[in-house]
Amino acid sequence: VSSGAARLPVAVLGAAGRMGERLCALIGESADLTLAGALVRPGSALAGRPLGAQEGPVATDRIEAALAAARVAIDFTPAGATLAHARACSEAGVALLVGTTGLGAAEQAAIEVAARCIPVLCAANTSLGVHVLAELVRRAAELLPADFDIEILDIHHRAKRDAPSGTAYLLGEAAAAGRGVTHDGAAVTGRTGLAGPREAGSIGYAALRGGDVVGEHSVYFAGTGERLTLSHAATDRTVFAAGALRAARFLARQGPGLYTMADVIRG
Ligand code: NAD
Which atom of ligand 1 is nearest to the CA of 99? Predict the structure, then answer.
């Protein structure tokens, strides 16, 4: 137990999931954080019970109860739940880190509205390495001529719901920024059948799903006679959880607004 200094109370939304479990465990081991709320899916049999062997709050399926004692909430749930979570955090005045991927336009809008009242950070990937990779991708796209075709591959475990991954899009956006083009106009996903020759200047995506792969991303710059590949592999979800906690500590020190992992890494 830290001497004197108050611990930062954190709520984990999606506490029983793969990421949620890892977050609760790391919070339990940390010297400066405390688990102040644990939200599980509505109707879950876990609601009303302590989570695992952890000391701390019982799990709840009511977002207001999960947020009541928290200063920062960390959301790793399926995309559909994030809209309500953003509204509830805004009403409760609790900062929000959204790690959930596959967000739709309505969720993005709710996050932007919430950011007027609370600090919010939305990160498809909370590992340090991926943000360094994004910076390298941006630079490579800037340096290489436009006839180097950009293709992005992501590999994830069999239970992942969204494809391509949020991180693949983050890397595609970095490539588009480096090239000075708009990402959404260039992105091509889900090629199949007689897709025809590749359109010049496009950014192509492909997704593999299987087994227990935590997350791997490769960005190919395919020219004529040479090819540059930049890759990152996460081998343990703990890197995402540790990055999320670093972001939570950062958010607790900020005023209302929308922040990025780049802001966290810069401190
Ligand atoms: P998961 O399916 O293991 O966990 C999600 C949990 O949320 C489940 O326990 C589910 O029951 C629960 N849930 C469903 N609806 C809920 C609700 N309304 N309220 C509270 N809980 C609810 O998934 P996961 O592998 O932990 O991933 C969760 C999300 O995080 C996905 O979108 C994934 O892509 C994303 N992710 C992001 C990063 C990152 O670095 N940002 C890393 C890994 C995963």
Answer: 41
> What spacing in Å lies between the alpha carbon of 98 and ligand 1's midpoint?
10
Q: Give yes or no: 232 in active site.
A: no
Of all helices (H) and strands (E), which one includes residue 205? Answer: strand 203-209
Tokens of 214: 């935590």
| Alpha carbon of 76 to ligand 1 centroid (Å) | 4
Dump pLDDT digits (tens) for 4-25.
Answer: 579 999 999 999 999 999 999 9
pLDDT digits (tens, 9 = 90+) for 77-117: 999 999 999 999 999 999 999 999 999 999 999 999 999 99
**Among 77, 101, 237, which residue has the most ligand 1 atoms within 8 Å of its CB, making it the best to mutate?**
77
Which residue has the least CA distance to atom 1 on ligand 1? 17
Specify the DSSP element, H or E, that contains 92.
helix 82-92
Q: What are phi and psi of 140, to 5 degrees?
A: -65, -40
DSSP E strands, 14-53: 33-39
How many whole angstroms separate alpha carbon 266 and alpha carbon 193?
Answer: 45
Is 76 close to ligand 1, i.e. is its CB under 6 Å away? yes
Using pLDDT thresholds of 50, 70 and 90, give the confidence band for residue 266. Answer: confident
**pTM score of the predicted model:** 0.92
190 DSSP 8-state letter: -
Q: Is the CB of 45 under 6 A from ligand 1?
A: no
C-beta of residue 28 within 8 angstroms of C-beta of residue 56: yes
